[in-house]
Design a protein that fits this description.
With 426 residues, the chain is an alpha/beta fold. Helix 3 packs parallel to helix 15, helix 5 crosses helix 10 and helix 11 packs parallel to helix 13. The protein is globular, with a radius of gyration of 22 Å. Helices cover 36% and strands 21% of the residues. The chain is built from 15 helices and 17 strands. It folds into 2 domains: 242 residues, Alkaline Phosphatase, subunit A; 171 residues, no CATH class. The N and C termini lie close together (7 Å).
C-alpha cells in the first residue's frame, strides 16, 4: 500500500470571475506542480458536508475525516477550547470568540477582526486583563487568546449550562448546533438569547445571560486598556469588544480514525479548530511552526517536514490555511497569488524530493470561499487524487476540469475511504 498525503487547502474553491477571464483564482493561477499531478491523476468534486450546505471549517473537516457531522458535532466552541488545553466538562459553556472593533459609544461593529493586525502578543495582554478584572455573578470563566484576533471562552458554574444560545457575532447564525455564515448582516453586536425552541429552558436562559454579562464587562476592560490607548495613538483599530459564536456544552465523541480507516494518520494543522478535531479523532498532531508571515519560507518548511514525518505514519493530513483569508476579503488576486505560492513552495519542494509513485496524493478543500460574496458557499470543491493507474488525462487542476473528472461527485465523509481504497489498490 502507498503512503498517503491528504492535503486540504482551506477555502480553495471559488466561482469564475470576469476579472480573471471567466476563470476561478485556482484556474487562473500558474500551478505547474499541481497540474503535473492532474495530468497523471484523477479529478472530481466534493460536497464537503452535503449539497446545499455552506459549511464552516469545523464541520467540513469533521466530514473530510470520515465522520457524519450531523451525528457527532457539538459546536465549534468545545473543539477550540479543547485544542487550547482547557478541560471542557459536560454542562460547561464553550465558545469561539473574536476580538473586534466597535464604534465608541455604540455597539456598531466597524471591523470583526480588528483590521487583521492585532498581534498575538497584544491579544495575550488583553486576555490577561479580562481574566484579571472581569467577574461574573455566580460563575467562573477562562478567556484565552489563540492566534491573532481569535480566542476561546469557557464559562463554568455549579450546575449545567447550555450551548443552545444564539451568537453575539452578527456574521453567523445558529441552526441547531451548526454555525452558518451569513452573506449579509447588520453590523451590530447582538445580545445572546436561547435559540428557537429553548426560550423556556432555564439553562439556556442563564447561559445567554452570563454571556451578555461577560460581553458588557469585558468591553469596559478593553476600552480602558493601555493596549488600545497605544493602538489609538498609532492610528489602528481598537480591540474593544468580544464577538462570540458557536456555543457548545460538551465535547464530541469520535470513533478513532485508526479504527475507521485501519491507518495511522498524523496531521499538520494551523488553527485551533482543526487541532481540536485532530486530537479528538486520535490523530497525532505534528508540532509545526506557526505562520511567520513569510509564506515561501513557511510552505517550503511544511514540505520538508512532511517528507520527514511521513516516515512515522501511514498518512499525513495537511491543512493549509492560505487561500481562505484573501477570499473573505474579496481579494481574488491575492487568493490567486497564494495558490501559486503553495504550488511553487509546498508542492514544488514536496514533489522534487519524493518518488511520487510511492504515494497516493490527494488535494482538495474544506469549502469554497467565494471572492465575489466574501463568504463560504455551498459550491462543491475540486478534488485531485494522484495514485498510479488512475488517470483522467486532464491538463490542469481546477473547478471546471474537476467537474468532468472520473472520480465524479463525492460527499466529504466518503473521501477518506475512497483515498484509502485507491492507495491500497495502486
Amino acid at each position: 500500500m502507498k503512503k498517503i498525503f491528504y492535503i486540504v487547502l482551506d477555502g480553495l474553491g471559488d466561482l469564475p470571475l470576469e476579472e480573471l477571464g471567466g476563470k476561478t483564482p485556482l484556474e487562473s493561477a500558474d500551478t505547474p506542480f499541481m497540474d503535473s499531478l492532474a495530468k497523471e491523476g484523477s479529478q472530481g468534486i466534493v460536497y464537503p458536508v452535503r449539497e446545499g450546505v455552506a459549511p464552516e471549517s469545523d464541520i467540513a473537516v469533521i466530514s473530510l475525516l470520515g465522520y457524519s457531522a450531523e451525528e457527532v458535532y457539538t459546536g465549534r466552541g468545545p473543539l477550540e477550547c479543547f485544542a487550547e488545553g482547557l478541560e471542557v466538562r459536560d454542562g460547561d459553556l464553550a465558545l469561539r470568540v473574536n476580538f473586534a472593533t466597535c464604534e465608541e459609544g455604540s455597539w456598531k461593529i466597524l471591523d470583526r477582526r480588528v483590521g487583521r493586525n492585532l498581534t498575538t502578543e497584544e491579544a495575550a495582554q488583553l486576555a490577561k486583563e479580562i481574566n484579571d478584572k472581569v467577574k461574573l455573578e455566580g460563575a467562573e470563566f477562562i478567556f484565552k487568546n489563540t492566534i491573532g484576533h481569535r480566542g476561546v471562552l469557557l464559562i463554568q458554574k455549579e450546575g449545567e449550562l447550555s450551548g443552545n444560545i444564539t451568537n453575539t457575532d452578527p456574521a453567523y447564525k445558529k441552526e441547531g448546533v451548526f454555525g452558518v455564515a451569513l452573506e449579509s448582516f447588520e453590523p451590530f453586536l447582538k445580545e445572546a438569547e436561547p435559540i428557537e425552541g429553548f426560550s423556556e429552558d432555564e439553562k439556556a436562559r442563564l447561559s445567554a445571560q452570563l454571556l451578555n454579562e461577560f460581553t458588557k464587562k469585558s468591553r469596559e476592560v478593553l476600552e480602558a486598556s493601555e493596549i488600545n490607548k497605544k493602538r489609538r495613538e498609532e492610528g489602528k483599530l481598537l480591540a474593544n469588544v468580544i464577538l462570540s459564536r458557536d456555543a457548545g456544552d460538551c465535547l464530541p465523541k469520535f470513533k478513532p480514525i485508526k479504527e475507521s480507516t485501519g491507518l495511522n494518520f498524523g496531521c499538520f494543522v494551523q488553527m485551533p479548530v482543526e487541532k481540536g478535531i485532530a486530537l479528538l479523532s486520535g490523530m497525532e498532531v505534528v508540532d509545526v511552526p506557526l505562520a511567520s508571515g513569510d509564506l515561501p519560507k513557511d510552505y517550503k518548511l511544511w514540505a520538508e517536514l512532511a517528507i520527514e514525518k511521513i516516515k512515522d505514519f501511514d498518512g499525513l493530513y495537511i491543512h493549509i490555511k492560505g487561500p481562505d483569508e484573501p477570499a473573505h476579503d474579496g481579494n481574488f488576486l491575492k487568493k490567486k497569488e497564494i495558490i501559486e505560492l503553495i504550488d511553487k513552495y509546498f508542492f514544488g519542494n514536496l514533489l522534487s524530493k519524493i518518488n511520487k509513485e510511492d504515494f497516493a496524493i490527494c488535494t482538495t478543500a474544506d469549502h469554497s470561499t467565494v471572492c465575489k460574496v466574501k463568504a463560504h458557499t455551498s459550491d462543491p470543491v475540486p478534488l485531485l487524487i494522484f495514485a498510479q493507474n488512475f488517470k483522467d488525462n486532464t491538463e490542469s487542476f481546477g473547478e471546471s476540469q474537476a467537474k468532468r473528472g472520473s472520480l465524479g461527485k463525492l460527499l466529504g465523509r466518503e473521501l477518506i475511504y475512497k483515498l484509502v481504497e485507491l492507495a491500497k489498490a495502486s
